[in-house]
Structure prediction request, 96 residues.
Amino acid sequence: MNFQEFQNSINDDHPPPGINQLLLALWYDAKEDWEKSHNIAQDIDTNEGALIHAYLHRKEGDLWNAEYWYRRAGIKRPGVTLEEEWQSLVSAYLTI
Prediction:
């Protein structure tokens, strides 16, 4: 699956079969289901999961919590828009 196919799948009622949990969290975020996305992300105990968790709290406007999760992921908060960050995460996690 490439980025465009993933992005197109957001118009579907169900996520693409076989995608990893990282992409599943980002898919639900794009569907505007923050709660479901957050529930998935918080159960991924990796730097990648922490990064999605950080992004979600940044999107929510809880920057203090977002900063904590960016630190857990080992990076500083990116200086890009939320949309650019989402695209970057999806692109990175399509290769996992």
